Write a sequence for this structure.
C-alpha cells in the first residue's frame, strides 16, 4: 500500500516533470535523483551548521534541471529539509551544503573549485568532464547511456566530508 | 504379562524397572534435546538469515538507490559464502525485481535428498531502509538441510551415548541391586528354613537400618514371640498333663465310688425287683382270685363249683393239698365236693371233728407235732394246715381245708400271703355257695313240684324237647313212661286230701330212687307222673316200667296210726322215634297207652301202639 502510494507519487511526479519541462532530458531527471541520493551517503563536518535544520542545495551557473529540483525542495535528507538556491558566483561558504556546478561554468571551473574547496564542508557535484580530476568531489558521466559517477576521495577528505563506502563502491572510479 | 512380571524375582524386577526408567529418561532427554536443538537451529538459522538480510540490505541500499544492478549482483554473489542460502532477491522501491541470486549448488537441480524434502525452507523478507525511507525489499530463502544433517549427527552421537550410558547404568544397577536383594534373599531363606524345619530359634542375619532391616527385625521379633509362645505352650501342656493325670486319678476314685454306689443300687434294685415280683405274685393272686370269682358267678349249681375250685387252687397253691367240704343240713355232716394234692383227705367228716367248724373261724396248725390237730386229719399230717369254715350270713356253708406241701426239712409256717389268700378264697367260696344255694332253691321252686320235689310239667316239656333233639342227633331213642295212681279219686275221698298228698309225696320219693341219674321224673299233674328215659331201648323201658309197678305195690302207708291200703299204678310206655319225634306226639302216645292200660283193668304196663298188656307178674 505504502509502496503502491510511493509508486503512484513517483509516477505523478514524473508525468508532472515531463509535462512542465518538455526540454529537460531524462538525464537530468536521473541526475537530480542522484544528487538527492548522494546527500544520504555523505556526512558533513560538525562545524557546518550542525544546528541548522536545512540542507541547502545550490546550483552554480545556468540551471539545467529546470523545475526538476523544485521537486526536491522540502524533502528530507539526514533529518534536514532540502532547500534549493541558485548562485551567480561561487560564494558558497556558509550558504550551501551541496553545490552543483553547471556546464555553463566550464570556463571558470578552476576558480570555482578552489573557492568551493576553501569553503570546507561543501559537496561539489558537476557533469563537467574531468571535474573530479580537477578537484571536484563527484563527477557525473555517461556509460552506455546510463548516468554513472566518479568520486575524488581526496577532495572529499580535504573538504572534511565523509563519503559512505557504499557510495564509493558504486563509483566508476575513485581518485585518491 | 503383568502377572508374569509379578512372579519374577525381585532381582530381575529391580534391574528391569531401573533399565526401563533409565531408558525412558534417556529417551525423553534425547527427544527433548533433539526437539529443542531443532527449534534452536531453526531460530538461529532464521536469525542468521535476518542478519544476513540486514547486511545485504544495508550494503545494497546505495546500489538500489543508484540503480546499479551489477553492484547489487556483486553484493548478492557474496552470499556464495553461505551455502545454505538458496535464493536471494532484491526488489526496488517500486517492487520491481532489482537483483537475484540463486545458489548454484542447488539451483536447477531437483530437490536433492530426503533431507530437503523433510526440512522446510526458511525465508526472510525485509525492507531496506535508508534513514527512515524504505528504498527496497530483500527476500532471502535458506535451506535447513545442513542444520538438519548437523542435528542428525548430534542425535546419533546422543543415541550412542544413551546406549553406552544405559549399559553402564545397567551394570551399576546389577551391582547395586545386590545390596537390596541379598538381604531380601536372606530374609526369604530364613523364612523357608523356619517353615520347613519348624525351628523358631532361627533369626534373620541382617544388620541394617533400612526398611529391610525393619522387616528383619519384625520377623526376628515375631520368631522370638513364637518361640516364647512355643515354650510357654509346652510348659502349659506339661502342667495340663499333670492336671489331667491328677484329674484322672480323682475321676477314678469317683468312679470307684460310683461303682460301689452302683452295686448298692443294683442290690436295692434286686430287692425292689423281688418286692415287685412279690407284688406281682400278689397281684396275680388277686387277679386269679377275681377270675375264680368270675367263674364261680357263672356256676349254676354247687356241684359245678368243684372243678372251678380245683383248677384255681392248683394254680394259686401249687403243691398244696386239701379239700372243699360242703355242709349238708339234712345229714348234719360235711362232705368233700372236691379234693386236690398228694395228701389224702377224709371224704365225709362230722362238724365236731374239725376245730375250725366248731369255733366258727379259722383253725391254724403251724406244727403238727406241737399244735392241736383236727380229728379229720389226725392221720398222716406232716405239715402245717388250715381249716377255714365258709360262713355267709351267719351260716356255716362248708369248710376249706388246706395243707402245705410236705418236705424233708420239716414243717414250715404258713406264709402270710397264702394264709390271706386262703381266707379270701374261703370267703369267696362261702359267698358263691350261699348264692348258689339261693339260686337252687329259687330254681327248685320254679321247675319242681313243691309237694313231691319232682320236676313240674313245664320242666318236662323243656327237657323232653332237648332230649329228643339230642337223640335225633345221636340216632338213639328216648323213652317216655306215663303213669297214674289207680283209683286215686276214691282214695282221696276215703282218706282226705292230706292222705292223698302223703301218697303223692311218697310216690315221688320212690320215683326219685328208681330212676337213673340221667333220667328225669316229673309230676305231670294231679296223680299223673312222667318219666323220661334218654338212650333206652324198648325192652329196658318196659322192664323199668314193670319194676316200678311192682315197687309201688310194696309201699305201706299209715296215717294217724291207721293202716292204709296199698296203692297200684297203671303205666303207658312210648319210644321215639317209633311213636313220634315230637314231645307232644310222644307224650300223647304214652298217654294213650296209659289209658289203654286203665281200660284193660289197671295195675299194668301198656306199650304204645300195641294195646297189649306187658305183665310179667
Amino acid at each position: 500500500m505504502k509502496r503502491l502510494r510511493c509508486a503512484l507519487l513517483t509516477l505523478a511526479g514524473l508525468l508532472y516533470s515531463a509535462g512542465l519541462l518538455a526540454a529537460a532530458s531524462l538525464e537530468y531527471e536521473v541526475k537530480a535523483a542522484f544528487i538527492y541520493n548522494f546527500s544520504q551517503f555523505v556526512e558533513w563536518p560538525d562545524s557546518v551548521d550542525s544546528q541548522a535544520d536545512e540542507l541547502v542545495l545550490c546550483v552554480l551557473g545556468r540551471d539545467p534541471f529546470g523545475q526538476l529540483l523544485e521537486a526536491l525542495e522540502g524533502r528530507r535528507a539526514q533529518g534536514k529539509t532540502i532547500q534549493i538556491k541558485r548562485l551567480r558566483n561561487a560564494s558558497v561558504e556558509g550558504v550551501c551544503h551541496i553545490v552543483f556546478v553547471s556546464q555553463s561554468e566550464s570556463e571558470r571551473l578552476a576558480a570555482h573549485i578552489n573557492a568551493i574547496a576553501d569553503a570546507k564542508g561543501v559537496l561539489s557535484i558537476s557533469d563537467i568532464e574531468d571535474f573530479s580530476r580537477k578537484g571536484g568531489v563527484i563527477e557525473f558521466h555517461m556509460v552506455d547511456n546510463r548516468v554513472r559517477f566518479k568520486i575524488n576521495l581526496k577532495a572529499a577528505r580535504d573538504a572534511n566530508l565523509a563519503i559512505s563506502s557504499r557510495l564509493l563502491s558504486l563509483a566508476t572510479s575513485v581518485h585518491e | 504379562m503383568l502377572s508374569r512380571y509379578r512372579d519374577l524375582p525381585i532381582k530381575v524386577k529391580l534391574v528391569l524397572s531401573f533399565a526401563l526408567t533409565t531408558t525412558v529418561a534417556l529417551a525423553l532427554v534425547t527427544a527433548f534435546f533433539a526437539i529443542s536443538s531443532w527449534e534452536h537451529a531453526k531460530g538461529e538459522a532464521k536469525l542468521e538469515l535476518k542478519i544476513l538480510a540486514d547486511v545485504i540490505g544495508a550494503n545494497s541500499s546505495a546500489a538500489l538507490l543508484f540503480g546499479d544492478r551489477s553492484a547489487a549482483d556483486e553484493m548478492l554473489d557474496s552470499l556464495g559464502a553461505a551455502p545454505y542460502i538458496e535464493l536471494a532477491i532484491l526488489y526496488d522501491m517500486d517492487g520491481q525485481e532489482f537483483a537475484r541470486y540463486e545458489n548454484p549448488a542447488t539451483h536447477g537441480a531437483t530437490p536433492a535428498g530426503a533431507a530437503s524434502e523433510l526440512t522446510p525452507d526458511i525465508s526472510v523478507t525485509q525492507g531496506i531502509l535508508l534513514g527512515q525511507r524504505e528504498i527496497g525489499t530483500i527476500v532471502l530463502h535458506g535451506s535447513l538441510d545442513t542444520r538438519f544433517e548437523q542435528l542428525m549427527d548430534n542425535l546419533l552421537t546422543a543415541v550412542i551415548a544413551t546406549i553406552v550410558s544405559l549399559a553402564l547404568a545397567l551394570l551399576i544397577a546389577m551391582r547395586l541391586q545386590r545390596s537390596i536383594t541379598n538381604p531380601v534373599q536372606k530374609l526369604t531363606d530364613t523364612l523357608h528354613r523356619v517353615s520347613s524345619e519348624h525351628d523358631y530359634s532361627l533369626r534373620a542375619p541382617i544388620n541394617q537400618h533400612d526398611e529391610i532391616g525393619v522387616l528383619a527385625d519384625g520377623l526376628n521379633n515375631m520368631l522370638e514371640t513364637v518361640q516364647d509362645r512355643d515354650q510357654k505352650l509346652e510348659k502349659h501342656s506339661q502342667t495340663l498333663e499333670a492336671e489331667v493325670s491328677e484329674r484322672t486319678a480323682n475321676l477314678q476314685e469317683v468312679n470307684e465310688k460310683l461303682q460301689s454306689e452302683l452295686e448298692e443300687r443294683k442290690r436295692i434294685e434286686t430287692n425292689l425287683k423281688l418286692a415287685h415280683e412279690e407284688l406281682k405274685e400278689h397281684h396275680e393272686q388277686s387277679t386269679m382270685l377275681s377270675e375264680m370269682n368270675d367263674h364261680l358267678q357263672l356256676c349254676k349249681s354247687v356241684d359245678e363249683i368243684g372243678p372251678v375250685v380245683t383248677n384255681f387252687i392248683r394254680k394259686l397253691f401249687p403243691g398244696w393239698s386239701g379239700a372243699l367240704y360242703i355242709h349238708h343240713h339234712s345229714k348234719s355232716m360235711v362232705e368233700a365236693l372236691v379234693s386236690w394234692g398228694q395228701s389224702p383227705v377224709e371224704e365225709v367228716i362230722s362238724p365236731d371233728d374239725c376245730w375250725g367248724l366248731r369255733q366258727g373261724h379259722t383253725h391254724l396248725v403251724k406244727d403238727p407235732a406241737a399244735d392241736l390237730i383236727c380229728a379229720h386229719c389226725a392221720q398222716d399230717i406232716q405239715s402245717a394246715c388250715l381249716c377255714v369254715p365258709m360262713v355267709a350270713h351267719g351260716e356255716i356253708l362248708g369248710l376249706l381245708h388246706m395243707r402245705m406241701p410236705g418236705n424233708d426239712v420239716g414243717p414250715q409256717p404258713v406264709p402270710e400271703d397264702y394264709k390271706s389268700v386262703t381266707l379270701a378264697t374261703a370267703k369267696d367260696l362261702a359267698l358263691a355257695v350261699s348264692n348258689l344255694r339261693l339260686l337252687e332253691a329259687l330254681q327248685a321252686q320254679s321247675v319242681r313240684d313243691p309237694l313231691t320235689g319232682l320236676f313240674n310239667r313245664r320242666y318236662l316239656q323243656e327237657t323232653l324237647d332237648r332230649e329228643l333233639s339230642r337223640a335225633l342227633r345221636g340216632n338213639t331213642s328216648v323213652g317216655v313212661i306215663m303213669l297214674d295212681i289207680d283209683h286215686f279219686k276214691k282214695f282221696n275221698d276215703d282218706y282226705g286230701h292230706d292222705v292223698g298228698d302223703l301218697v303223692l309225696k311218697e310216690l315221688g320219693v320212690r320215683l326219685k330212687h328208681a330212676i337213673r341219674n340221667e333220667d328225669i321224673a316229673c309230676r305231670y299233674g294231679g296223680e299223673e307222673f312222667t318219666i323220661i328215659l334218654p338212650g333206652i331201648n324198648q325192652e329196658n323201658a318196659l322192664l323199668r316200667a314193670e319194676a316200678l309197678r311192682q315197687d309201688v305195690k310194696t309201699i305201706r302207708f299209715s296215717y294217724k296210726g291207721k293202716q292204709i291200703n296199698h296203692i297200684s299204678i297203671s303205666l303207658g310206655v312210648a319210644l321215639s322215634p317209633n311213636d313220634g319225634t315230637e314231645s307232644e306226639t310222644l307224650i300223647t302216645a304214652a298217654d294213650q297207652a296209659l289209658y289203654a292200660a286203665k281200660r284193660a283193668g289197671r295195675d299194668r304196663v301198656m306199650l304204645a301202639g300195641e294195646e297189649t298188656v306187658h305183665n310179667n307178674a
Chain A touches chain B through 19 residues (CB under 8 Å).
